[in-house]
């Protein structure tokens, strides 16, 4: 029997003895864990770097938007800005007034636009030294004018409901004509657009019982005006902004007249804006009108806006400025730039957004600025008469933005304003709807300057309406 002791000895002699402690397995485990953690950190860093590269814009925009929203809400809550306080705490329907003035009040910086790559001023006035030398031009009456004389119709009060009505009874929703306007028939309406040497037309003020009463003292002042800048605020709707940018020459030759009603007078007195003993507030002569003829305050506002030739019978020129605006240019300079330099009789701004009366009518209804049924009646009549969809005048828009109207008082411009007023009285008080129609029908009128919107922005600082005008109580 053979033994394998030699093999066993060889194995014992060739083996390597490795000592293993009890702690070794734990150390190896920790090394593996650290390696895994290191790989995980490297992976996270790579992922974070990728996310930063891909979404770095969001990381900037989101905090910025959040900061802007926070600031906007903080400003809105701030009691020191644009505070509105009621006139009478017991009467929540009373108008409210801004404590702080509008931000753009008294700005004189010019409005500019780019023409052929060059930035130019929208309204190119004469330099100051030449403005001081301006005077009202003396012109001989031309024998070639299409209309030589305009006569204003006078009717008997008995033509209205047997003549036994009061002014308040005429302030109703179911009639547009009253003792102030006269009762224009459709035949008379058509005749008012005909070209004649002598025109007879309704033009307001036809009856002493018609309303719009002005004191004799104010009438006397208005009789002496040769050039006038006018505005009005009826129903307490707006504040009175002092004109700026006026030359010394214009201060001596131009009247500034603001028409208020008794509602506005009371509202302004309650915030310590009082008419002085001389009848002025700053540069404005304030004329308080009593017995306004219409319940619609917007329609009452069309009287001084469109019929300045009737209110200022001796005036040669007038500039109308809506009460929501501050007039900021020299009036004689404006006349020179928009009328005299261009040989125009009337200057008015083109509409900024639209050119079609029919598109404008849709916008008026959408914004609830007129009743849909009233607008429909007006447009149906204009379609029946054949008014084109996109009426243009001398290549420019006929649709106007009439917050500023500059004009020379001549028979033909007086006729234009009379027929325009009659359209407003007959249909809706949104005068931009009827202006293109009047231009289209009144073929005799040629010399008109439809200036661009940027020129209007240079003429005024626009404030917007401060508060809602209060209607008359019938």
TrEMBL record:
Keywords: Membrane, Transmembrane, Transmembrane helix. Pfam families: TOD1_MUCI70. The keyword Transmembrane helix applies. This is TOD1/MUCI70 glycosyltransferase-like domain-containing protein. The lineage of its organism: Eukaryota, Viridiplantae, Streptophyta, Embryophyta, Tracheophyta. Residues 1-20 have a biased composition (Low complexity). The keyword Transmembrane applies. It comes from the Eukaryota. PANTHER family: ALKALINE CERAMIDASE-RELATED, OS01G0749100 PROTEIN. Residues 171-465 form the TOD1/MUCI70 glycosyltransferase-like domain. InterPro entries: TOD1_MUCI70, TOD1_MUCI70_glycTrfase_dom. Residues 1-23 are annotated as: Disordered. Coiled coil: none annotated. The chain crosses the membrane at residues 51-70.
